[in-house]
Amino acid sequence: MSTPTLKGPYWVTVRQHRRAARALSALTAAGLAAVAALRLWAGAPGPEGPFAFPTRAYNLLRLCMEYAGTGLLLLPLLAGAFVAGPMTARELESGTWRLALTQSTTPRAWLGAKVLVASVVSAVAAAALVLVYRLGWTRVSSTYQLTWFDRGPYESTGPVLAAYCLLGVALGALVGQLVRRTVAAMAVTGLLTGLVMLALGALRWSFLPTQTRTIPLGGNTTRLMPPDSLMMDTGLITSSGARLPEYACFERTRNMGDCPADLNVTAWYAEFHPASHYWPTQLIETGVVLALGAAALYAAFRVLRARRG
Prior knowledge:
Blueprint: H1 8-16, H2 18-42, H3 55-72, H4 75-94, H5 97-101, H6 107-140, H7 153-156, H8 160-179, H9 182-203, E1 211-216, E2 230-238, E3 243-244, H10 250-253, E4 265-273, H11 278-308
Antiparallel strand pairs: 1-4, 2-3, 2-4
Helix pairs in contact: 1-6, 2-3, 2-6, 3-6, 4-6, 4-8, 4-9, 6-8, 8-9, 8-11
């Protein structure tokens, strides 16, 4: 859909904010070029053999992926702040929204055009940036702070990032009408979006039940969990089935593998999320976020109807 085919408030909205859209496109293209170059460099044959990573390139790619994962967490906040401020509150604050109403446009169409344009741009940009991030992340995944369950890589490698962007757009449309001050609306929207991301980030590993595995007390504890699993809890099991803390024996004997007889410890246990829980968790969280975004958008149009008909 190109700009000439747009009509009415949609054409106006795109024209008003075309610079921001171009900047976002340029950022995505620059990110793709940088990540592709780093990945090719990191995958080039090294001095130690055809499968060795050049240390400098690999470390640089890891560093970029760490910062990029953190940076992409800000994308939903920025999307919400932009809708709340420049797209909504600024027009209400200055009164320029009334000009749109003189062009046979209803308040509902005025807000709907802004929400639709912002939603499409945010979702497409998020999807593109996720693909760019995954291009580099797959080369350095399963390393420290870059595993599938770490905050940053988790959000930046799946559909949940686009869902959070849509939530930010919906919150921006609501807060922009309630606050009607550009800077204040941007700050409030960014704060609310960030709080939702923090809350769901703390709850996401309770969406699915954990798996449990046990091994005899003298067994190899490295075999408690499959590789790349997220450990939720670990400890000791007694002959009666009771669970004890991980360091229950160590506190008494100063030896992790030596347990006093009176404790009757027979095995180790671990509760964990395997890597196969990644996509189900992503889809559940995406659904929750989209539901919250739909509720915020409904509230935004209710406020619009109550205040402007």
